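Hi all, posting the design record for the shared folder.

TITLE: backbone redesign
STEP: 1 of 1
STRUCTURE INPUT:
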């Protein structure tokens, strides 16, 4: 039975209450501000900005409730919109892939650098999506595996002078090992308790990196990390014959290194996506989904829950280690300040905003959150405010994420044939 539409007076009252709540929240954040002066601090009143935000909240709530009350008879319902989005993924994903491949051909250095950052978080989101989206294990310490991969490459490359391509699989394997070590203590934990333990694990790794000065460099981190090469060709302008520019007889440009790094992280991200999609259709991936839906029923089916959880943590951590190794070679410097809880929260927000279990949704969410944050860099004071408002709007309009991906993998291949078989067996 559908809900009864609100009367105009009720809509105005609800919108006014929302505006009043917004006024109470933002009066101290936006309306009043302490600014430094010659005599100390002075209180600056910015009522115009406060009233603009309150008015936007009032109008937005009014339009949303008004649309629900007087929606046209032929307007699509949220369920129909969600189904159309899921079907459009078949052509949206190839289109985004073509755009990603062609981006360095027409974009400048800044856009390519932002693209590298976005793809790094796409890869992190796809790695965490295995743990959270497919296996249903809430992990708030994913940044720990990111840090393990980064420091593994940094220490191996600076101490033993190993190259990037040699150390990359080692960094992933070490991060996967730490994923297994994390998985053992949390085998019997679920929900909030699992989240607390994984959060503590991430903080333990960060504290160890800060205090183990003789090994990790402590707060100073590790510097002078070598850059990756293309079959031994370096991307610098030193005049060395073993450089990319000298080998191909072109003029040196620093953009060449950014383009190379862009295609490296794009290849790593596509590898993560391909492995995730393949695993999802294997018995292991279906065991993850069964664990996500109901752990008790999963045990009743005879699935080894211990192995299922450990493999989810290990594989997700491995891709986090790959992303960490790339982060280290891209920055040329790593320190514990780059691996705080905020990074774990950001990656988890990307997975939830995109839709648990959805590969396309995670990519879109990373593009919106990371790329959108860069667009608002000139408005640093309001950037997090806009980010929070966008999350609230998403929770109201799309609580399951941009692209809901909780469809069982057994029905992804041939849904019509499976449905016909069920009908033939009397179960449809």
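Okay, here is what came back for every position:
SEQUENCE:
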């Amino acid at each position: 039975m559908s809900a009864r539409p609100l009367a105009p007076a009720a809509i105005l009252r609800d919108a006014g209450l929302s505006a009043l709540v917004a006024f109470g929240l933002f009066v101290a954040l936006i309306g009043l501000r302490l600014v430094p002066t010659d005599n100390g601090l002075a209180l600056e009143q910015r009522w115009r900005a406060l009233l603009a935000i309150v008015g936007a909240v009032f109008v937005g709530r009014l339009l949303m409730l008004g649309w629900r009350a007087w929606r046209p008879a032929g307007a699509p319902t949220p369920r129909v919109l969600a189904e159309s989005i899921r079907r459009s993924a078949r052509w949206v994903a190839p289109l985004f892939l073509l755009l990603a491949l062609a981006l360095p051909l027409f974009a400048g250095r800044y856009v390519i650098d932002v693209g590298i950052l976005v793809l790094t978080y796409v890869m992190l989101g796809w790695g965490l999506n295995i743990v959270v989206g497919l296996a249903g294990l809430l992990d708030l310490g994913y940044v720990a595996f990111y840090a393990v991969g980064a420091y593994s490459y940094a220490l191996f490359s600076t101490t033993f002078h190993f190259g990037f391509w040699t150390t990359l699989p080692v960094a992933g394997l070490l991060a996967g090992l730490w994923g297994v070590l994390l998985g053992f203590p949390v085998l019997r934990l679920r929900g909030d308790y699992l989240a607390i333990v994984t959060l503590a694990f991430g903080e333990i790794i960060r504290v160890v990196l800060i205090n183990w000065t003789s090994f990790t460099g402590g707060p100073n981190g590790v510097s002078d990390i070598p850059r990756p090469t293309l079959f031994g060709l370096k991307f610098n302008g030193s005049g060395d014959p073993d450089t990319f520019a000298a080998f191909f007889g072109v003029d040196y440009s620093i953009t060449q290194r950014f383009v190379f790094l862009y295609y490296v992280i794009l290849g790593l991200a596509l590898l993560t996506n391909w492995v995730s999609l393949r695993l999802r259709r294997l018995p292991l991936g279906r065991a993850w989904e069964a664990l996500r839906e109901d752990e008790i029923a999963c045990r009743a089916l005879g699935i080894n829950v211990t192995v299922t959880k450990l493999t989810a943590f290990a594989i997700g951590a491995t891709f986090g280690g790959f992303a960490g190794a790339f982060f280290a070679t891209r920055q040329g410097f790593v320190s514990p300040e780059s691996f705080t809880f905020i990074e774990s929260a950001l990656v988890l927000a990307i997975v939830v905003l995109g839709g648990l279990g959805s590969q396309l949704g995670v990519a879109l969410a990373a593009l919106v959150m990371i790329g959108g944050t860069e667009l608002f860099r000139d408005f640093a004071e309001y950037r997090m405010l806009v980010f929070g408002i966008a999350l609230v709007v998403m929770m109201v309009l799309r609580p399951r994420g941009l692209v809901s991906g909780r469809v069982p993998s057994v029905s992804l291949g041939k849904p019509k044939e499976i449905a016909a078989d069920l009908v033939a067996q009397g179960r449809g």
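COMMENT: The beta strands are 32-37, 40-45, 222-223, 333-334.
Let me know if anyone wants the other runs.
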